[in-house]
Every structure is written in structure tokens, then in C-alpha cells.
């Protein structure tokens, strides 16, 4: 048993939906090439080709075309299939910069961003009734240490002109972001969010994506800064620093909304990310989204219960130094230590 802040906490639990420890696994070429560390999450065994004979299952990363092809191959070969993604507390640096993740999620049902079908995360949140106190301990440590999914940006107050109006942070996302469509959102979701914000009389702050500011991608809300009382926030500061100076967060499907919930900030969702639909967000779902979620996400859940599922029950954490399995609290310690070492 682990002891954190004087409390006895559960050990790392077995995740029975994961691939069996002795099962040979296959993956697409790009997965094996782009994520050379991935085998360490599966008993340090080498991942074979998805077409190799003798494998018992296939793993795929994310939700783009290669993942869809891998899923088709698994169905054709009558093999089991697991969806992989970064965990919600990933690392200090960005994956694009080569930072190896401290956590990934392994899901036998679907992607955590996919509201169109059940995921293992959704089922864990549904069953997290007894995990609230454990989730609060996790939440307290994440908020105390000002952490988010990525943790490379400095903590300093962003340069936003203060007005007497309440501040709504509207989170932009890049056009083509898989999580938008999978969360049952669209361009119209962003247009509705912006229109509602501008009509509210609040100071609307648009937090754009770094790739958009660099001219590498296009954002859904980029053009909205020319309309009404909307301010573009492009300061390279941490998520925690931004959330320190806003009153509400409106989003389509970004994890930014979950970061806000952890800090007690009201969140409005214009699609169905994993943390929406449980009674902790103000949900502006369309008819199709409501119909798709009908019969699912039926229980009211607290932020602490969702945090327990998202940060502990669902992901797997490993220390990249020796690839031993660790828990969320040790992952927090490693990120904080990295931050201090580079300060």
C-alpha cells in the first residue's frame, strides 16, 4: 500500500481489459517506428507487424487512418484489438519534441475521446462511486503542483488586459483534430460557442493552439478575434497560469476543460469530451449527441470520481528510466523533479 499525505491508498490495480502478459502483439509500421518505447508497456516485448502470423492481438495508436486500418485488419483476422493513446498526465515535454510519456491508456472498447461508442474510461467513470476520496487526493496533488497533460511551459501571469467584465476562456482547437469529430463536435460547435460568448457581454478570451500561432495549422476560432470583445491569448504560459485569471472555460472537446474542473472553474461543453455528461459541466449538446449518449453516462459523478478514473483506474504509468510500473503520485513526483532540474 502507498501512503500519500497521511492517507493509505490502493496499490496499482490489475487492469483485466489489457492484453494478456504472454500474448504476442502486432502493430502498424508507423506505430512501431514512431513509438520505439511502446513495447515497454507490454512486458518489454517487441511488437510485430499487424500482418505477422502467430500474434494474438493488434494495438493501434490514436484515431487516424492507420488506426482504422489496424482495426479492420484485426476484424478480418478475428484478432483482438486495443486502442492506445497518451494518458491525461503525460510528461513534462511535448510528444512532438521527443518526450517519452510517463503514461498511456490501453482500451479494448474505444478511444477515450470517442463519444460515439462506449470506452473503458466511460465504464470506469460509471463505476467510480467509491473512488471519490482517492480522486480528491490525486486532484489536490495535480492542482498543488500546477500540472496538466504537458508541463513544459512556465508559470507566469498571461498578458491580458483586465476589464470589469467576467472572463470566459474559449479553447480553440486545430482544424482536423480527431478529438473534435470523435466527441461529436464540428465547425458549427465552435461557431455556436463563439456566438454565445460574444452575445454574453463577457470578456471573451480565445486560447489558440501553439501550432496555429506558428502558422503550421488552422484553428476553428482564429478568425473570431476580429469580432466583438474577443481577445487572442497566445502567451506561452502554463495551463494553470491561464486558469488562474479566468472565470469560466468554454470548450468543444479539449482537455483544458477537465483541467478547469479540477480547479473548481465552471465549464461549458459544446460537444461530449470524456468529462461531459456526468453532471459536472454545463452541456450544450445537440439532438444527435443526446441521442447517441442515451442510455450511457446515466449516473451523476463528481469531479473527484472522474479524476480517480482518468488519472489512476484507466492509465498505465511507467518510469522511462527503467520502465518499471509506477502510480500517479510517483509520476507527479517525476514531472515536478524534471521541472526543478530545468528551471
TrEMBL record:
- What is this protein's name? Capsule polysaccharide biosynthesis
| Taxonomic lineage from the root | Bacteria, Pseudomonadati, Pseudomonadota, Alphaproteobacteria, Hyphomicrobiales
**A GO term (biological process) for this protein?**
polysaccharide transport
User: Which source organism does the UniProt entry give?
Assistant: Rhizobium freirei PRF 81
One Pfam match, given by its short name, reads Capsule_synth
**What CDD domains is this protein classified in?**
beta_Kdo_transferase_KpsC_1 (cd16440)
Q: Corresponding gene?
A: lipA
**Top-rank lineage group of the source organism:** Bacteria
Amino acid at each position: 500500500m502507498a501512503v500519500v499525505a497521511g492517507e493509505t491508498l490502493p496499490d496499482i490495480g490489475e487492469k483485466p481489459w489489457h492484453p494478456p502478459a504472454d500474448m504476442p502483439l502486432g502493430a502498424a509500421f508507423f506505430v512501431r517506428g514512431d513509438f520505439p518505447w511502446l513495447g515497454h508497456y507490454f512486458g518489454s516485448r517487441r511488437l510485430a507487424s499487424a500482418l505477422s502470423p502467430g500474434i494474438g492481438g493488434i494495438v493501434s495508436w490514436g484515431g487516424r487512418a492507420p488506426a482504422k486500418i489496424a482495426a479492420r485488419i484485426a476484424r478480418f483476422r478475428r484478432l483482438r484489438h486495443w486502442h492506445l493513446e497518451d494518458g491525461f498526465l503525460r510528461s513534462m515535454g511535448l510528444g512532438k519534441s521527443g518526450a517519452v510519456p510517463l503514461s498511456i491508456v490501453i482500451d479494448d472498447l474505444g478511444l477515450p475521446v470517442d463519444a460515439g461508442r462506449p470506452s473503458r474510461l466511460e465504464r470506469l467513470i460509471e463505476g467510480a462511486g467509491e473512488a471519490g476520496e482517492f480522486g480528491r487526493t490525486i486532484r489536490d496533488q495535480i492542482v498543488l503542483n500546477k500540472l496538466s497533460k504537458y508541463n513544459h511551459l512556465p508559470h507566469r501571469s498571461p498578458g491580458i488586459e483586465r476589464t470589469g467584465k467576467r472572463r470566459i476562456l474559449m479553447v480553440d482547437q486545430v482544424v482536423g483534430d480527431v478529438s473534435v469529430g470523435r466527441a461529436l463536435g464540428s465547425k458549427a460547435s465552435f461557431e455556436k460557442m463563439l456566438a454565445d460568448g460574444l452575445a454574453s457581454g463577457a470578456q471573451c478570451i480565445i486560447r489558440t493552439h501553439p501550432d496555429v500561432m506558428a502558422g503550421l495549422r488552422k484553428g476553428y476560432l482564429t478568425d473570431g478575434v476580429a469580432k466583438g470583445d474577443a481577445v487572442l491569448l497566445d502567451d506561452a504560459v502554463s495551463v494553470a497560469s491561464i486558469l488562474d485569471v479566468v472565470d469560466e472555460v468554454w470548450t468543444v472537446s479539449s482537455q483544458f476543460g477537465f483541467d478547469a474542473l479540477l480547479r473548481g472553474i465552471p465549464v461549458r461543453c459544446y460537444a461530449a469530451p470524456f468529462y461531459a455528461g456526468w453532471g459536472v459541466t454545463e452541456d450544450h449538446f445537440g439532438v444527435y449527441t443526446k441521442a447517441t449518449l442515451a442510455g450511457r453516462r446515466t449516473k451523476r459523478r463528481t469531479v473527484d470520481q472522474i479524476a480517480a478514473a482518468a488519472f489512476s483506474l484507466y492509465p498505465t504509468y511507467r518510469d522511462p528510466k527503467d520502465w518499471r510500473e509506477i502510480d500517479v503520485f510517483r509520476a507527479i513526483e517525476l514531472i515536478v523533479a524534471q521541472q526543478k532540474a530545468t528551471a
